[in-house]
Design a protein that fits this description.
Methyltransferase, Methionine Synthase (B12-binding Domains), Chain A, domain 1; alpha/beta; 7 strands; Multidrug-efflux Transporter Regulator, Chain: A, Domain 2; single chain; 3 domains
């Protein structure tokens, strides 16, 4: 073997990334620049190792896959010390809560504008919007907020997130279909997941809440996605369409998420259970074998 170069198996072990994902990054983003051995094998250099490591670091910081690959080609620079204390995101949750629960449309959007200008979208969703939505649900159940306050806050956040979703079906990456099963009205977490998947380079086909199972099956046959994610807070919503989902999972990788899904149900349907918050779920899906092999 040529001195100083690695074949794909050794390269994969060294950087901790599967060969399938490395090939996908090379094909989609031009991340790697391998030479060829006299026998025609791809050979990867220390420079390729360094680019993969820089890409992984950018992904950890919340960059999309395309952005992480672009930054990985830039030479590393020394980080400059911050002059000011970082914003406490717990305080930002409280700021957003105060504006939303006062029915202050302009004030809530101003808080979101400031956050999105300061932090990565993934950070704003994971550390501000999602914690607030969990808190909102708990306070609504305890009677601390009214139905009107809950509806106002949820609808404003849903509309704002969807405004960020424009163009999330464009690009060259694999398609993914996101839906909530029949009877499931909650889709905010699904929207968050779609935004992160889009920033990871995937094309999102969003069916949203209360998607008829026939519509889902027809969509899958039409767009041939790399995977389907079904999200629900109600186990009954999945139980009602068990047979159809079992057939669907034989056609396409099917993932079940949110509180209504379980590993046992996923196993029974031939699907895969994904747990965690919507941002974490999206990152898992973006780096899944289903996407790498698409």
């Amino acid at each position: 073997m040529d001195a100083g170069y690695l074949r794909i198996g050794e390269f994969s072990q060294r950087v901790g990334v599967s060969p399938e994902r490395l090939r996908a990054w090379e094909k989609r983003y031009g991340l790697l620049s391998p030479d060829r051995s006299t026998g025609g094998f791809r050979l990867y250099s220390d420079a390729d190792v360094a680019r993969v490591e820089r890409m992984l670091a950018q992904l950890q910081r919340g960059a999309s896959a395309a952005e992480a690959a672009r930054l990985a080609w830039e030479p590393p620079v020394a980080a400059e010390p911050r002059a000011a204390e970082p914003v406490r995101l717990d305080d930002e949750v409280a700021r957003l809560r105060d504006r939303l629960e006062a029915f202050d449309d302009a004030g809530a959007h101003a808080v979101l504008d400031e956050l999105l200008a300061t932090f990565a979208l993934e950070t704003v969703m994971r550390d501000v919007i999602l914690p607030y939505l969990v808190e909102l649900g708990e306070r609504w159940r305890s009677g601390e907020v009214s139905v009107g306050q809950e509806h106002f806050a949820s609808n404003l956040l849903r509309a704002r997130l969807l405004s960020l979703a424009q163009g999330w079906g464009q690009g060259a990456g694999p398609r993914v279909v996101l839906a909530a099963p029949p009877g499931e009205q909650h889709d905010l977490g699904l929207i968050v997941c779609g935004l992160v998947l889009s920033r990871q380079g995937l094309r999102v086909v969003f069916l949203g809440a209360d998607s008829p199972i026939d519509t889902l099956i027809t969509t899958v046959r039409t767009v041939r996605p790399a995977l389907v994610l079904l999200s629900t807070v109600s186990p009954a919503a999945l139980d009602a369409v068990r047979d159809a989902l079992r057939e669907l999972s034989a056609q396409v990788p099917l993932y079940l998420g949110a509180g209504g899904a379980s590993r046992q149900l996923a196993d029974d349907l031939g699907a895969t259970h994904v747990d965690g918050d919507p941002v974490s779920v999206a990152i898992k899906l973006a780096h899944s074998e289903a996407v790498a092999n698409a």
